[in-house]
Amino acid sequence: MARANLAALEWTDRVEPGTTRAFNVATGVPHTIGQFADALAAAFGGPPPVRTGEFRSGDVRHITASADRIGRELGWRPQVGFDEGVREFAHASLRTGADV
């Protein structure tokens, strides 16, 4: 993610002042919330999450962040895969209560 932030900062030097743009930082490979929850539980060595199969009215059922723009406009490509990224996320200092 740090490389994506640096690429975005460099982008701001090349565009007209005041120009803004949103960039999704993603692998470009869709994963479900269930897959994320399973990977996060595994990273902690815990039991798999309980799935009820229920949802509420208004819940977003399907959405995928596209990394096309960040690749096309900034030349950024992910360096970390899903499983490794979830493990890093699970054990990052902000997740363990450590001071940063």
Question: How far do the termini sit from each other?
Answer: 17 Å
Low-pLDDT residue spans: none
On the 0 to 100 scale, the average pLDDT is 87
- Secondary structure class reads mainly alpha
> How would the global form be characterised?
globular
Strand content: under 5%
Radius of gyration: 17 Å
| Count of runs of 4 or more consecutive helical residues | 5
**Count of beta strands:** 0
How are helices and strands ordered from N to C?
A: HHHHH
Major sheet details: none
Q: Share of helix among residues?
A: 40-55%
Features:
mainly alpha
Explain this structure.
With 100 residues, the chain is an all-alpha fold. 46% of the residues lie in helices and 0% in strands. Helix 2 crosses helix 4.
Task: Give the topology.
Blueprint: H1 2-14, H2 33-44, H3 68-74, H4 82-91, H5 93-96
Helix pairs in contact: 2-4
Describe the structure concisely.
The chain is mainly α.
